[in-house]
Amino acid sequence: MKVIENVDLRPFNTLQLPAIASRYCEAASVDDLRAALAANGEGRVLILGGGSNVVLAQDFDGLVLRPLLRGRELLGDDGEYRHVRVGAGESWADAVAWTLEQGWGGLENLSLIPGLSGAAPIQNIGAYGVELEAVLDRLEALDLVSGEVREFTRAECRFGYRDSVFKRELAGRVVITALRLKLPLDWQPRLGYRELADALASTGIDRPSPRDVADAVIALRQRKLPDWRVLGNAGSFFKNPVVNTDTYATLRIAHPGVVGHQQSDGSVKLAAGWLIEQAGWKGRDLGRVGMYERQALVLVNRGGATGAEVLALRDAVRASVHERFGVDLEPEPLVV
User: Fold this and answer.
1) Which protein family is named in the record (predicted)?
2) Mean pLDDT across 46-68
3) Of the candidates 34, 48, 69, 81, which lies 20 to 30 Å from 294 by C-alpha distance?
4) Residue 162 among the catalytic residues
5) Given 154, 162, 221, 314, the catalytic residue
6) Domain boundaries, the chain
7) Catalytic pick among 131, 277, 309, 332
8) DSSP letter string, 264-307
């Protein structure tokens, strides 16, 4: 373990934003984490994984700590689920690909999502009708107060839509070190997401395998989302807003084309990308940043942008959508 001073964080965030960390350290074990935190004392700490859900708006005067704990292993099965442990420092996309290589289904809808596995529960990542909470059994995390590793059951994670207890009460109080995932032995494809179902139907495959579903998901993501290594981005920049049925009915009268999906609790989840496109931002730039021409929900760095420029575009898009639809958009990434 080595602490480096004055490190440029541009390579460590997918928006490719410039920021300098006064101190930087990579931890390959729980003991490394403990040692780095002890040496830092009362100084500021930023836990940074793959940097796929963060806006670095300024330099960070403190320790940037990257938990790069590796490891992927089959723990066994209980007759219903296959249990797999994945270290927090493993690439999530690589971990999904590894399970598919073993012939294990369960994670295919979450293929090609960028970032490290340890960040997945914080955001409760989701795609194509599946969220992490559906496949997580429990996780391991280092308690920064006691210094002990403790387990959190799925219920204790208190998952919500792009939300968890780790974004709220436990923010900055624990570091996730490993995930324990449960993959069904009696696998069935989850094709409730219309676009995915249509993509698979177009292939003519009647009984898709986990690999078939993953291939369809990957093709959809590559068609709609830019590769962050080529064009800096943080994936979907805004959450899909959730409104009550009365608000949705009013919106449909004023805007008949509004896209909404009924939720189990009776609320309606609006398509943020549609709102942004209708507000005139799809493919439109503001300085060196813009909303992607293939998917209005994705904010992109056209080259050399700063965090301040990202925040200016964020605010402009939110203001436009609110002015036209009376709906508030909530950004997904954490601003540092």
Assistant:
1) Belongs to the MurB family.
2) 95
3) 48
4) yes
5) 162
6) 3-67, 72-224, 232-335
7) 332
8) TTS-EEE-HHHHHHHTT-BT-EETTEEE-SS-TTEEEE-SS--H
